[in-house]
Amino acid sequence: MNDKAAENNRMITAGYNDPKTGRFAAGNPGKPKGARRKLSQATLHEIVGMKDDAVEGLRQRIAANDMDAIKFVLERIVGRNRMITLDGDQPRDVTNALIEGEISTEEAKAIATVIEKLRRIEDMDALAERLERVERLLRDESL
Description:
Strand content: under 5%
């Protein structure tokens, strides 16, 4: 960008940006909620229309044993982390897998966190069910 264009840009955004840092000034609301990116709707529709060609190109690269293409697909489907299979869903199963060296301590911690969150959800479901029963009993006694 030449000096004149840069100066014009500074002048246009002077009311919105801090002149020293160029960042949004205090009180500037920034981009309005719901505002679209710079890509137009037509461009987005054009990109969506190319999906079949993209998938076919990817298939051809996979058929040619292109490891980058294979890695791309696997990372999108499986994720960058490896798949872990446990013998059960109890904390002792996680402990056993950790002791046997099948999973790392970070993986054990992540799995334990998920199990704990799932248990809390189950506990909340059980409490909701009990509360519903109590409410039914109270309704029946009040009649």
